Amino acid sequence: MPASQNFGPHTRRKPLHAPRGVVATSQPLAASAGLAVLRQGGNAVDAAIATAAALAVVQPGSNDIGSDLFALVWDGSALYGLNASGRSPAALTFETAHAAGVPASAALGGAQADAVSTMPARGWLPVTVPGAPAGWRDLHARFGRLPFPALLADAAHYAEHGFPVSPSVAHYWGRGLAAVRSTLEGRPEHAEWLRVFAPGGRAPAAGELFRNPDAARTLRLIGETGAESFYRGDTASALVGFAGGTGGLLSSADLAAHESTWVDPISVRYRDHEVWEIPPNGQGIAALQALGILAGFDRPVGVHEQIEAMKLGFADAHAYVADPAAMRVHPDALLDADYLARRRGLITDKAATPEPGDPARGGTVYLCTADAGGMMVSLIQSNYMGFGSYVVAPGTGFTLQNRGAGFALDPDHPNAAAPSKRPFHTIIPGFLTRGGDAVGPFGVMGGHMQPQGHLQVVLSTVDDGLDPQAALDRPRWYWHAGRSVQVESGFDGVDDLRARGHEVTVVPEPAGFGYGQAIWRTASDGLVAGTEPRADGVALGY
């Protein structure tokens, strides 16, 4: 395991304190791009866009230009949400998806892990329209200050001239290639991915210079055209032409029809704070449900109760969350106080395997930024499952996401695969306020780990008074299914969890426990930030 993979309290970092602005993310070069924008007079949204674009280049295998994006923006007095996730091709029918389904035991993930079959994880079928380029543009149009092309300049420079691959990125890049290479070779839809991201037949080593000039051209076109090239111009033509020649369903009409959606963030009150998430089609509501359940206990709660509350949140999220147009239960019903009280009553002193309730009765990257004017941004973007679909159209330099793998193959499920539909999404940005005033942005990436990470960071902050760095350093727990719980080395309370019926495994390597960042505004109106000790993360300020 590379030295950079050490984590937890044994590598305790000090939090960053800064008076004017902060950028925190999982890759130092991307954080530097965002900080440079702040120092040039840009605001927190400008810095977030620059950081996100740079992450698409310097942290492949977690995100790319072909990703989706969600963001929460505090403008100094109010919170705004952006859902920049894409929809399935109009030609994707349920019958087509079901015919291509794979056994759940063979799938790499997805929202319904217990289904008889799931969407395939790689190739064209799980590809949905990438939302990140439009998300960058739409954030800039509403809140940005500096010229849009300038915000993508560092990302394009790193792509064209190269960047030294960081240790964590190299580690997971190599491991991911080894796991899938045999399934990619000889398939025309994957040939360009192998050429671009496995040059010479291997993943680059830590410190090795990696160049991607095609991605530089794509980024410059996005900047010069306000992303029009991506959805209606040269890049769109390349994507559609490659899809037509290699079995893809993506069409020019699918790309041209794409648009982001500004949404009202949803929240629950926990103690004297408010915790905010993007509403479905994301899974942030699972974290809010768990926090709402825990907030109602009239006795001290420990890790057992946290895990059981999280299970209840996931049970409902996996049963009800889908494209908002297809949801049969309104998010407000899932957060209703009486409903949460009923769910709370299901928690005993023993581990359980809960079912969804009935509310009708009553590879991801994360970044956060803050500026001197009071603006703060919580932003997350992702391919999904490492390099996503492992499909790269020649001349574009980026991998298309595989978010369609999150669709259900149950025709009666609200998240069933269908044409022009947003799938269940795992990526969720978080934001914390207190009495209506901003505390700050936070997030923990990592698929199924994300709501669990949000829960643990909030509890460490609100209940235990930890600073952002200490909250992120703390060893984490992770629940996936049944009574199985994984914990990181150094985690306290293992014996108690086992006595309550949890099947606990202590995992020495941090894979699966997520990467997080957080920035809090202090009582003196300064900023304090923490960054992920399990990766190459850094928080930079001035």
TrEMBL record:
Any single Pfam family the record assigns to this protein: G_glu_transpept
SUPFAM superfamilies for this protein: N-terminal nucleophile aminohydrolases (Ntn hydrolases)
Top-level lineage group: Bacteria
Region of interest: Disordered: 1-21
PANTHER family assigned: GAMMA-GLUTAMYLTRANSPEPTIDASE (AFU_ORTHOLOGUE AFUA_4G13580)
Protein's name in the database: Gamma-glutamyltransferase
Organism, scientific name: Virgisporangium aurantiacum
